[in-house]
What we know:
- By secondary structure, this protein is mostly beta strands.
- It has one domain: CATH 2.40.50.140.
Amino acid sequence: xxxxxxxxxxxxxxxxxxxxxxxxxxxxxxxxxxxxxxxxxxxxxxxxxxxxxxxxxxxxxxxxxxxxxxxxxxxxxxxxxxxxxxxxxxxxxxxxxxxxxxxxxxxxxxx
Length: 111
């Protein structure tokens, strides 16, 4: 059961081209956002689509695959864990961000 405590699975489309960074240590880091859509009918019976954006980061071999094959609009399934961190922006304000750290990636849709 421990493996289920912090596990996220999402299917969505990339909202931008991945940003891939090679660190001084030689490790690669890929950052991108995916959009997931949920469709439902509201009280008036109208179809409503709710889009949620998710920040995703991937490391090393997964980041290399992302750099080579993914671009804006591609459909992917990712699995990973949720992490939260904080940082200080340029004005010195503390900012918080929640990200999915991708451990598994499946490319969907056409080539």
